[in-house]
Amino acid sequence: MPARTGALRPLAAIAVAAAAVPALVACEPTAGGLNTGAVAVTTDRTVTSTLERLEFEVGWLSCTAKADTPATASSGSTAPSAAGPSRASVDCQGETGSGQDITVTGKVTEERGGKCVRGDLTARIEKKIVFRATMLGDCSAAPSSAPSGDPPAPGSPYPTVTVTVTETVTAQAK
Prior knowledge:
The protein is of the alpha+beta class.
């Protein structure tokens, strides 16, 4: 029995980590701008899907997004725009199933419903470019960001959240 318990520990750890993600999210008002949490999550999903479609096995991938300074009303003003950031810098790190480094960097200008990102993204495996994209995913989905001043609709399937790190993990029982 002890061997079986030891074999299940990695799977249990992954399950606990996945369950903890909702506890780590916090509200981020978007005021019509990009939501960096939604950008990070959607980039992770769409990049993983694209790499797998290109027949790369993704062992894990973790994406973060940071809002770029929003445009200002005048060149002398340093006050942020009321509309929020219009671009986010994205940085993803990961590994293929065979241990090769995956990096994805770029700018995202639009995120739609957890299904699409638009911008300028470059994915590399072992520093070799495997794709460049201006759009990943299904961009016919509705945008995740709420219009300026309007809160998300009650029961909306895509709440406005911030996620610091998203990780895709493939676990295999031995």
